[in-house]
């Protein structure tokens, strides 16, 4: 059998999704064609739509469709506190604990020299500009408690302390080696309350 | 953080891919937005394109962009032999063995009463019409050697023998319980040569 052009193109495109190998890409393509064409069309439009509309919040760097995201625009929040997280998922986990009412900065990653991810890739210039706006007084480092997350927190902490900011770190209620996304809200809540000076 | 509409829609659409849960759908969405917008656009277009263009070959039932696929149109092939497979991947595996020069019929599944997959879902009426065209003399059943594949082969075999066709089954060189897609070409080649009357 010669595969048709569109089918081959679909399998190749699915393969570029993270965690999807050639076999599962092919299975996905067959599954969509045979059993769920509506899901395939929905996904096609969702992808094009998202890439067209979503960019980074000019204040906190998270993904948003507007210039400044809703969280950053929320006047109820405490502008003197800035919490630095690796990903939007981590921010969501912290929000769920209801222990934090400040603002955020989302790195969209962590320092990882072995993978070639340096300060520029996690928007550190933007973070410095944001943290030194004259309103922020304390920066809470809430990167993951993995080796890379700890190194990122250390690097950012030194950088911000050198600029006269108070810097704290979530308490180690979070299990060592753990990723925030997989930790229960209670643990994160305690770690937030016990945050220590960094 | 409130998720933006397009981002939420993208994560939900990715979740409908087989084998993708809510966490990995969200990771995929973030990954595409942050690191591979080009892949996302390519996939978006590939999905819409494939759903628009690909349908079933009116002869062998495989996926194709044309009315009758290239394999079915190949005048070099032996029209007296018809090999029944579960999926296009299985057909490709058999092609790779270079032991078979007949035509194919692709069920796009297997009988599975527990999952509500009956004869209509695997196009058995089309298979009967195809196998009784007056040219086909032998039908080679090459469904998987799983319980469901064996039951499907048995069901189809009885149906076609009742219509006076010679029916054979790949020899059990294929490991019992094995799926063709994961078996080496040499084993499939031997099983094809040793195929037995069913
Ligand atoms: Zn924002
Ligand atoms: Zn065909």
Automatic annotation (TrEMBL), chains A, B:
Gene Ontology terms for molecular function: DNA binding; zinc ion binding
GO biological process: DNA recombination; DNA repair
CDD domains hit by this protein: TOPRIM_recR (cd01025)
SUPFAM superfamilies: Recombination protein RecR
Zinc finger (C4-type): 57-72
InterPro entries: DNA_Rcmb_RecR, Rcmb_RecR, Rcmb_RecR_Znf, TOPRIM_dom, TOPRIM_RecR
Annotated ranges, domain Toprim: 80-175
UniProt-listed Pfam families: RecR_C, RecR_HhH, RecR_ZnF, Toprim_4
Superkingdom assignment: Bacteria
Keywords for the protein's UniProt record, in alphabetical order: DNA damage, DNA recombination, DNA repair, Metal-binding, Zinc, Zinc-finger
Keyword ATP-binding attached: no
Role: May play a role in DNA repair. It seems to be involved in an RecBC-independent recombinational process of DNA repair. It may act with RecF and RecO.
Family of this protein: Belongs to the RecR family.
Protein name from the UniProt record: Recombination protein RecR
Upper classification of the organism: Bacteria, Pseudomonadati, Pseudomonadota, Betaproteobacteria, Burkholderiales
Gene, per the UniProt record: recR
């Amino acid at each position: 059998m010669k595969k048709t052009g569109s089918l081959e193109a679909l399998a190749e495109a699915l393969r570029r999704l993270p965690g999807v190998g050639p076999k599962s890409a092919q299975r996905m393509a067959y599954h969509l064609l045979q059993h769920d064409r509506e899901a395939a069309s929905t996904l096609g439009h969702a992808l094009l739509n998202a890439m067209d509309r979503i960019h980074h919040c000019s204040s906190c760097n998270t993904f948003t469709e507007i210039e400044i995201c809703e969280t950053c625009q929320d006047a109820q929040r405490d502008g003197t506190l800035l919490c630095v997280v690796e990903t939007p998922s981590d921010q969501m986990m912290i929000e769920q604990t209801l222990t934090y009412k400040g603002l955020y900065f989302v790195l969209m990653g962590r320092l990882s020299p072995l993978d070639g991810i340096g300060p520029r890739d996690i928007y550190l210039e933007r973070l410095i500009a944001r943290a030194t706006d004259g309103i922020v007084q304390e920066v809470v480092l809430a990167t993951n408690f993995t080796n890379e997350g700890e190194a990122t927190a250390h690097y950012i902490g030194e950088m911000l302390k050198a600029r006269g900011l108070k810097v704290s770190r979530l308490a180690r209620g979070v299990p060592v080696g753990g990723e925030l996304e997989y930790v229960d809200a209670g643990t994160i809540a305690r770690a937030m309350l016990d945050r220590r000076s960094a």
